[in-house]
Amino acid sequence: AQSVAQPEDQVNVAEGNPLTVKCTYSVSGNPYLFWYVQYPNRGLQFLLKYITGDNLVKGSYGFEAEFNKSQTSFHLKKPSALVSDSALYFCAVRPGGYNKLIFGAGTRLAVHP
Amino acid sequence: DGGITQSPKYLFRKEGQNVTLSCEQNLNHDAMYWYRQDPGQGLRLIYYSQIVNDFQKGDIAEGYSVSREKKESFPLTVTSAQKNPTAFYLCASSARRVTDGTEAFFGQGTRLTVV
Lengths: 113, 115
Description:
Chain A is mainly beta. Chain A contains no helices and 12 strands. In chain A, 0% of the residues lie in helices and 51% in strands.
């Protein structure tokens, strides 16, 4: 079965420290990979995507993500966390040959002052 | 402003009633999607539509129905056959099919509660 795993329900980080939110996937073909962020009672906002090319992609608000094909991972990173980064983060994958997105369960990021 | 508008933001339904959630976009996107969000389960696809007058079932279509009579509109009806309808519903759209790598844009969601 095709799936996306976000192994951590919650990640706690001190403001100013680097953050990583993990995502691994198990899908067919060459996937397209996405990260979205959700604030309380709001829709999802697009952060970044990997389609092809450089394995390190940069996105909105200083976030970046690294695609690792051998480890089937697409971890979200930021060098210096802000309290305002606290939100729910979703990894999503479009498997090769499919025209729909498969979402992970989400990881809640809490950045403490 | 361009975007996706979902209405209402909050909706209460009595058991046994059908209810329709509205989703309108002015982004001129071809594809539209409905997702259901439950705590700890991520987003699950209910229905999607690639073009007007065509739509496909997603992973959890039972108890739901949709129509796509206009490019900008993709309403979702939650029928009385849906056994556990209380959830947060998200509508999304994309410029082309997701197969092209285009990201999806989301509305602000409708929280449906069965009372």
